[in-house]
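Thread title: Can someone regenerate the structure for this chain?

I was given the following input by a collaborator and told the matching structure tokens would be attached. They weren't. Posting the sequence so someone can regenerate them.
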Amino acid sequence: MKKIFLLLSFFICVNSFSQLLSSNLEKKTLALGETDQLVIKIQNLKSRAVVTAPKNELLPFHFEEIKDSIGIDANTYERRIEFAVYEEGTFKIPELEFKVGEKLLKTIPYEIEVINTATKDDKINDIMNNKEVDLEATDYWELYKWYIFAALAVIALFFAVIMFVKYGKKKKSSPVVTTNQTLKELDLLKKKKYIEEGNYRSFYVELIDISRKFITKQYRIPADVLLTDDLIALMKQNNTISQDNEKIVEDVFLRGDLVKFAKTFPDKDLMEKDFAEIRDFVKRSSDDLEFENLRKDV
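Best answer:
Regenerated them for you:
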């Protein structure tokens, strides 16, 4: 009898000083989207604080928490969580931890089966009837303004491309630009001092290359692909280049071919003369083009 009395005293002391945690799950089988409720209670708090996950963050990922209410007083903590699951399958609610003072309490784990009760013959009804709303001009503007801005941007880009193609390329390939660019290339050739060093082969190779590119751009004659004889014949037939300029091109190009194959060896004076005449030809090219434009207009 004395032992029984001691055991009862022990359990009474334990219960009077320890916290009691209980949990209850309303349903363990749910239809898709059906709500369920989990209730957790902790008793005998004796004003101790309860530390756990914040509201709407206690349950795992698949559980969509709808309502999470907490009631607490000096001795009791109660938490009611309404939730739903929107996927078929079996899902687990693990042990949920609650810390009271220095003591860690855990709920028992639960397993919930979620099934799809709908069949293919079920009729789907709207939750609410469609409602007609009268929209004003400002409402339409808010709805479609970004589409309008996008359309205007596309139109502006389209016109910008047209203007670039029509005027940008024309400006970059204008006779003045081509002339100035070629004069710069000739100045760079002069700075290489081929004439002073007597390097006539390199001098004539680069001089003719520069001249061929210039004739191709300025006069629209394919000088960069034609042989010298064919180029001379085409220039005379074309009549775009004046006779004086044709004569300069013909003399320099023929002399350049002879130098290339070591059939002639020009001196420095002749090299200076050919350079100066090609430079003058480049500078006078605008006169040829103006005359050609006048001839076409007539």
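The helical segments are 2-17, 137-172, 175-191, 194-197, 200-219, 228-238, 243-260, 268-297.
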